[in-house]
Amino acid sequence: MKMRSLLLSSSLLLAASTFAQHIDSSFAVNGYLPYLGSNSNSEGNLGSAYASAVQSDGKIVTVLRRDPNTPDLMMHIYRYLPSGMPDPTFGVNGAVNTFCGQDSHGYDVDIQADGKIVLVGESEYCINGICGASQFIMMRLKTNGSLDSTFGVNGHLLSNHVFGSTGTYSIPKRFHILPDGKFMVGGTGPGGKPAIVRLKPDGFPDNTYGTNGVFSLTNVPRSRFIDMAIGPNGEAYGLLRTDTWNQTTISYDSANYTDNAIFKLNPNGTPDQTFGTNGLFGFGTDNTDEAASITLSSTGKLLVAGYNMPINNYYFSGYGRANRGFVAFVNTSGSMDMSIPNGFSNFDFVQDSATFFNKIIERSPNEFLICGFTTDYVNGNYQNKGLIVSMNAQGQLNSSFNGNGYMIFDHGIVGTSGWNGKLANFMDVDVIGSNKILLTGYRNPVGGATKGSIYILQLTFGPSGNLGFEELSAEQEFSAYPNPVTNNRFMVDMEEAATIELISLDGRILYQNEISSGTSEIFVQSEYKGVAILKVQTKDGKVGTKKLLFE
């Protein structure tokens, strides 16, 4: 039978009573958010999440693009309980829909000290005589999800509130909340140029920063704002993607298609001329670079994560087949940290043909977490799997994490006809307490369709227990015997009909079927030996899991 992969930490292969990373099966349904059903929110968890923030009470707020195939006039924000269930006190069963404009979607979200929720994104609304183009949007919500009228204009900030008549087509990508309650917002500003804005706590420009609250980078042609990091004194490091287009020759440099660059601003919004060359430092890791994230470590290093390719013709040959994840190490003076060979590390995982990094954060001075996805190019379509990587301060994989330094999760669904791609992409990563990791992104829950659902998955670190016999979840009681299993045959006793899955510890589904109430004999057509997880789920959503040992 054909086997498809499913998330389950291979760390569970370790002996009894060992400690390892594994799915937190108490979170949502089997460790990640479901699509539709009684355990999803009023929107069915529909949408593609770009970022999450964790409140002090453990609740999870995520911003998203709901459905580009059927856009509406709302900005959608979801909140979940620490258990992964929808928060019934937030909007309608965990979903807030705020009138904003056509095809609204959020890019970043954070929580103020008072619990209010702040987000940035884009929306198509009419401004400065322009309609139908993406524009700047920033909002602040009260803890119940309603707009905070003390922020901006009735809870909103639009392009003209920040940039006046020059800000048409401005789009924010990232923001930080400063200790004094002000906001640093980075993205595309006036004239399509990279810009960083400092806003007062009420949302309006802080005129003591830059020019009328705005710094606009005008001396780097063909540059695009990607991300930013903020230093301890309010200095800003803006991350750019640049390219080598030559308007005279109407071509790119065949040996160097795109590069990365960082610019540094002083706390007052003026360029720091001591950084790199006149406040700018450019670098590359291969022919084609696509930076995605920057963080300032507690030891004073800038780490940039993204993906690269050794060839040109970015969108036509090699994309999705030759990409590697990279992390570059940059000194805060604007130079490569050459204590790391070449100043950067490349990562490529043999399970799949290409690797993409989307976000990097510091977990400790010697551990950085990076999320993204891997992909295979199959019959003209990409089949993506979620990825989490643990890297040390020397740019090497942390073997203490899952035994190999990474975990790959396969929760996209391939259709039997039509589009045969699949999506399972992580865009954001958070650390909760000392032992939980929260990954946020999107996946396609329906085979043959690109419609996305919110993909929030939680990992935990702790004892894996007795692998042969431990019951993992008892929400739905059932029995399975004999255990250990011999000759690949065992019996399952259920009081009601259910769907069952048998999952190997390397993530493969060994068996999947529906069974009726009573006793069912199961025969597994596989040579698999070792521990596997038997999961049952009734029609009303109750789940039970047990570990079986196949001899």
CATH architecture of the largest domain: 6 Propeller
> In which range does the helix fraction lie?
under 10%
The secondary structure category is mainly beta
User: What is the number of independent domains?
Assistant: 2
Q: Rg, please? A: 24 Å
Largest sheet: 5 strands, antiparallel
Mean pLDDT: 88
Q: Any idea of the CATH class of the largest domain?
A: Mainly Beta
DSSP strand tally: 37
- Beta content: over 45%
**Shape, per Cα inertia axes:** globular
Low-confidence stretches: 1-19, 463-474
Q: Distance between termini?
A: 20 Å
- What is the name of the CATH topology of the largest domain? Neuraminidase
Number of helices: 1
SSE map:
Elements: E1 19-23, E2 48-54, E3 60-65, E4 74-80, E5 95-99, E6 102-111, E7 117-124, E8 134-141, E9 156-158, H1 159-163, E10 171-177, E11 183-188, E12 194-199, E13 214-216, E14 223-230, E15 236-243, E16 258-265, E17 280-283, E18 288-296, E19 301-309, E20 324-331, E21 335-336, E22 344-347, E23 354-364, E24 367-378, E25 381-391, E26 406-409, E27 424-432, E28 436-443, E29 453-463, E30 471-474, E31 479-486, E32 489-494, E33 498-504, E34 509-515, E35 518-523, E36 530-538, E37 543-550
Antiparallel strand pairs: 1-29, 2-3, 3-4, 4-5, 6-7, 7-8, 8-9, 10-11, 11-12, 12-13, 14-15, 15-16, 16-17, 18-19, 19-20, 20-21, 20-22, 23-24, 24-25, 25-26, 27-28, 28-29, 30-37, 31-32, 32-35, 33-34, 33-36, 36-37
3D structure, described in words:
- There is one protein chain.
- The protein is mainly β and about 550 residues long.
- The chain folds into 2 domains: about 350 residues, Neuraminidase, CATH 2.120.10; about 80 residues, Immunoglobulin-like (Sandwich), CATH 2.60.40.
- The protein has 1 helix and 37 strands.
- The chain is globular, with a radius of gyration of 24 Å.
- The protein starts with 18 loop residues before the first strand and ends with a strand.
- The relative contact order is 0.12.
